[in-house]
Write a structure and sequence with these properties.
Helix content: 55-70%
Number of helices: 10
Order of helices and strands: HHHHHHHHHH
Structural class: mainly alpha
Largest sheet: none
Number of strands: 0
Strand content: under 5%
Length: about 200
Amino acid sequence: MDGWVSRTDIIDPRQLKELSRRSDLRGALQLASHVGALGVTGWALWATWGGWWAVPLFLLHGYLINTLFAAQHEGNHLTAFKTRWVNNAMTHCTGFIVLYPCMWERWVHFAHHRNTGNWEKDAELLMRPKYTLGNFLTYLSGLRYWVFRVKMLFNMARGRIPSWAYWLTDSQRRYVVVEARWHWVGYAIIAALSV
């Protein structure tokens, strides 16, 4: 990313460098712990389905699914693992799970970093209205999040890239259309196998 700005008065630069060291082993352990937690809550949800214990387990499992975005975020910064292709593979997988295609999110996020806080250019601000208490609570419920993700993915697969996505080159626009279509193919396969 161009124009990176770092503060040096919060943490000692040597300590920050140590904390920022990339490691395939540490990344794998963190990812395995997250996937393991999903496995445990998924199994517990299956075992308690139909009972009241399923309610808190359902919320916990949903929370763990949503926090996969943190892995996608770090993978897009190429900081989750030392090895680049492992970052990319993990980011594609987590993006598929949370309905947020990897490269679309990577380019959105880089445009956000280049223009953080600028309501006319910050990509992440362009994707949503300014918060009011009402629309924030709707977003917090998850409804707005999932509806937005499904609509965005559907529109991108149809070749309709938002007009506010000014940062995308023509080749990137073509890429995100193909990426969205592959997502829908994957979801269709999962749906067919589930039946």
